[in-house]
Amino acid sequence: MLCWTWKRPIKLKSTTNPWNACKPSEQPWILSGKKLVIDLVDLAQARRDSNWQRRGFLDKVFLPDEQQRIRTASDPDRMVWTLWSMKESVYKQHPAAGRAFVPLHIHCFELDRDSGLGRVSYQQSCLYTQTQHTHPYILTLASTVPVFDRARVLGLSESSYASQHAALRQAIRSEAALRYGDGAFVKDTDGAPYWQQTTTGLNIPLGISHHGHYGAFVLPTV
Predict the structure, then answer these.
(1) What is the average pLDDT score of the chain?
(2) Per-residue exposure over 121-157, b if at least 16 CB sit within 10 Å of its own CB, e if not
(3) In a domain, 25, yes or no
(4) In the chain, how many domains are there?
């Protein structure tokens, strides 16, 4: 059984953008060759799998100012997984081959509680994030530009990874074919997913994530 949820696209106007220090690429996703990345955290699953309150956990994952955000948050548990999701999404933006995920190398130095918009630094680059909150999950998109496409979230009733993976791919295949025309899934050398158009051979980046009993994907506006 699939449960669909639409999340509206977010776009920041340059005249009101407070983050001009980030100097991102001005090219759109489809031309820049950048990956479209998304990270989802099923909060119930995260609580079952990880006890962030155990001794030493925060020191291994979060920098001092990030830990301060957690301590002063009205909901520390949700803040932990918000920052985790921001770090994961930014890590996915960079080539992963041979590079381990080291959370302390990723700095979430800006986060607006009301809009969910943030800035993250990683390997001398700055990326934008936009985090969406619901009761059961947290969803973060990362981009080199402060523009975020619409994301779809699916409730996945099956518990096995294979079943969830198949259901998510089927949903993406249907939506991608409807939006872009016939094509097929392909991956680049870093394992990033794309939808390759049959007629043009154009590779359109896909953002995919699933965790616990939820899956999510985002397709760029072409």
Answers:
(1) 82
(2) bbeeebbbbbbbeeeebbbbbbbbbbbbbebbbbebe
(3) no
(4) 1
For the record, the structure tokens of 162 come out as: 């294979």
Q: Is 143 left (phi over 0), alpha (psi -120 to 50) or beta?
A: beta
**pLDDT at residue 46 tops 90:** yes
The angle formed by the CA atoms of residues 129, 36 and 145, to the nearest 5 degrees, is 50
Measured from the Cβ of residue 28, the count of other Cβ atoms closer than 10 Å reads 13
How many beta carbons lie within 10 A of that of residue 120, not counting itself?
A: 25
137 to each of 57, 80, 144, 161, how far by Cα in Å? 21, 13, 24, 18
Domain containing residue 180: CATH number: 3.90.470.20
Task: Compute CA distances 141 → 14, 82, 90, 114, whole Å.
Answer: 19, 11, 8, 16
pTM higher than 0.85: no
Residue 160's alpha-carbon distances to 87, 166, 172, 210, 211, in angstroms, are 26, 10, 19, 12, 11
Please give the torsion angle defined by the CA atoms of residues 2, 50, 47 and 87, in that order, rounded to the nearest 10 degrees: -70
Give the structural domain span for 155: 2-9+32-218
SS3 category, 165: helix
- Give the mean model confidence (pLDDT) for residues 118-136: 91
Rounded to 5°, angle at Cα 215 from 126 and 42? 80
Question: Is the C-alpha dihedral spanning 163, 164, 167, 172 positive or negative?
Answer: negative
The Cβ of residue 103 has, within 10 Å, a number of other Cβ atoms equal to 17
CA distance 145 to 103: 22
